[in-house]
TrEMBL record:
Catalytic activity entry: 4 porphobilinogen + H2O = hydroxymethylbilane + 4 NH4(+)
Keywords: Acetylation, Cytoplasm, Phosphoprotein, Porphyrin biosynthesis, Transferase
N-terminal signal peptide: none
Gene3D superfamilies: Periplasmic binding protein-like II (3.40.190.10), Porphobilinogen deaminase, C-terminal domain (3.30.160.40)
Localization annotation: Cytoplasm, Cytosol
Cofactor(s) this protein requires: dipyrromethane
Protein name: Porphobilinogen deaminase
Gene Ontology annotations of biological process type: protoporphyrinogen IX biosynthetic process
Pathway: Porphyrin-containing compound metabolism; protoporphyrin-IX biosynthesis; coproporphyrinogen-III from 5-aminolevulinate: step 2/4
Summary of the function given for this chain in its UniProt record: As part of the heme biosynthetic pathway, catalyzes the sequential polymerization of four molecules of porphobilinogen to form hydroxymethylbilane, also known as preuroporphyrinogen. Catalysis begins with the assembly of the dipyrromethane cofactor by the apoenzyme from two molecules of porphobilinogen or from preuroporphyrinogen. The covalently linked cofactor acts as a primer, around which the tetrapyrrole product is assembled. In the last step of catalysis, the product, preuroporphyrinogen, is released, leaving the cofactor bound to the holodeaminase intact.
Length: 358
């Protein structure tokens, strides 16, 4: 158990202080504040203290993420603080969290997903255009191999270049210089920042499938902190949890990460969980894509006691029937196995080698 911190309010009432770790960027702060507000509504007696810190990914801004080769770029420093009891929980974008967490940590909550799709943000001089109608050889900025691989194939007349930095930095680079005709960003981040008006096009799955966990927020805690785990578990959104367990299991089985182009699309419809997964060569010319589904109808009325020690791809969700979580995880593994049987490993190995050689 972490050291208990407490504060007294004006009435002499003692309330527990919960320290919440976050990255320093404006988007990270907005995301963390939104989680803190939800917890405050549910537990009015707790006092939340936000602790912001910079991560490796925030500091290395001149190198493409896929070239840095570190899996926990945006999470390591936060996890170190969690380990040292300097914070009690950490808020992340789920897509930043590796599919295997360090021992002693777990994802105690996955919140209701924002729009997970990617969005096109145009340079002001291209207002009214779309990726289809941009002139030949227009330069599109994206730091993601996944986005570039899919979009190169779909829009061969465009040129894709790396762009790094947080949301504010990337928008500034787009607007203040003429280096890029447009940039591709996650719609979720733009919406959370209140910049929805900058979205000129949402990319549908047939144009560009999204990253594993994209659009979902995750709360990471120490696995042994039963009280904190219980407190945050109320934030879990069932459909988001099941979709993201399937997506993360798919990625883990493929041994994918930032340095390979892997994309997914999931939906829950009529008690069925659908998972589409794909792998791509760097230029998008070679790809494999399949869809599978599974029933997740195991009733919410299920009285089964879920083993709180069981993590599925890093997620502990003891309020959701274990059998349903198992089905979601199995779906991800089976879809990955199907792609692997068709040659996914070869595509990803070549992509990794080419990326390393760039």
């Amino acid at each position: 158990m972490s050291e208990e911190a407490s504060s007294q309010d004006g009435n002499g009432k003692v309330s527990r202080v919960i320290r919440v770790g976050t990255r320093k960027s404006q988007l990270a702060r907005i995301q963390t504040d939104s989680v803190a507000e939800k917890l405050k509504e549910l537990y009015p007696d707790i006092h939340l203290e936000i602790v912001a810190m910079s991560t490796t990914g925030d500091k290395i801004l001149d190198t493409a993420l896929s070239k840095i080769g570190e899996k926990s770029l945006f999470t390591k420093e936060l996890e170190n603080a969690l380990e040292r009891n300097e914070v009690d929980l950490v808020v992340h974008s789920l897509k930043d969290l590796p599919t295997t967490l360090p021992p002693g940590f777990t994802i105690g909550a996955v919140l209701k997903r924002e729009n997970p799709h990617d969005a096109v943000v145009l340079h002001p001089s291209n207002a009214g255009k779309s990726l289809d109608t941009l002139p030949e050889n227009s330069v599109i900025g994206t730091s993601s191999l996944r986005r570039a691989a899919q979009l190169k194939k779909r829009f061969p007349h465009l040129d894709f270049k790396d762009i790094r930095g947080n949301l504010n930095t990337r928008l500034k680079k787009l607007d203040e210089k003429n280096d890029f005709a447009a940039i591709i960003l996650a719609a979720a981040g733009l919406r959370r920042m209140g910049w929805e008006s900058r979205i000129s096009q949402i990319l549908e799955p047939e144009d560009c499938m999204y990253a594993v966990g994209q659009g979902a927020l995750a709360v990471e805690v120490r696995a042994r902190d039963a009280d904190i785990l219980e407190m945050v578990s109320i934030l879990h959104d069932r459909d988001t949890v099941l979709r993201c367990i399937a997506e993360r299991a798919f990625l883990r089985r493929l041994e994918g990460g930032c340095s390979v182009p892997v994309a997914v699309h999931t939906q829950v419809k009529d008690s069925q969980l659908y998972l589409t997964g794909a792998v791509y060569s760097l230029d998008g010319s070679n790809s494999l894509k399949e869809t599978m589904q599974v029933s997740i109808a195991a009733g919410a009325q299920s009285s089964e006691k879920v083993d709180e020690q069981v993590q599925r791809v890093g997620v502990t969700a003891n309020k959701i029937p274990g059998a349903v979580q198992d089905e979601a995880e199995k779906l991800g593994i089976e879809l990955a196995d199907l792609l692997l049987s068709k040659g996914a490993k070869e595509i990803l190995t070549v992509a990794r080698q080419l990326n390393d050689a760039r």
